[in-house]
Amino acid sequence: MQLNGIAHIQLTVSDLPRARAFWKPLLALFEMKILIDSETYFYCIGSRTGIALSPIEPKHAPETAETKALVERFIKQNTGQASPPKKAEFFNPQTAAKRSLEEHADLVTETLARIYEKQGNIAKAIAAYERLAVKHPEKSAHFRALAKALAGR
Predict the structure, then answer these.
(1) Topology of 7-78 in CATH?
(2) Which segments of the chain does DSSP mark as H helices, in order?
């Protein structure tokens, strides 16, 4: 998952080690790379975005028990679990060929039923006509008659 260009954001935090523990797995999910990770500064870039963390001056550091608990819960749930998203599979002609042979019951037409019949695949033609009878109730008598005629062969 990638962000799409937020430019640069600098967050001033009351506890840099805890903030780093919170942001590091989150930014990894956005495929961001760590450029600076020191005791006084944390900076990641990627996805046309840069995010920096720096410590706040102690006199400006109000923190409630509720926010502290929220951050701790997130850190516990996500520590060590952040991993880049799985990349898409490369095109494989053999896999594509196998997928093309799969039957799709919802993709049925009268033309397809006729093709099955002309190929001599009577069982598939009958099944196609029966699915068409269900799919098009107004023509169900017609499709059932065609299926019955094929069953008599």
Answers:
(1) 2,3-Dihydroxybiphenyl 1,2-Dioxygenase; domain 1 (3.10.180)
(2) 16-29, 65-78, 93-100, 110-118, 122-135, 140-151
Which of residues 70 and 1 earns the better pLDDT score?
A: 70
Q: In sequence order, which residues have a C-beta less than 8 Å from that of residue 7 and are 6 or more positions away?
A: 48, 49, 50
Instruction: Please state the pTM of the whole predicted model.
Output: 0.40
Residue span(s) of the chain under CATH 3.10.180.10 come to 7-78
Instruction: Say if CB 150 and CB 117 are below 8 A apart.
Output: yes
| pLDDT tens readout for residues 80-116 | 655 566 677 788 888 888 887 777 777 899 999 999 9
User: Token digits for 18?
Assistant: 């805890």
Picking from 75, 59, 19, the residue whose alpha carbon sits closest to that of residue 9 is 19
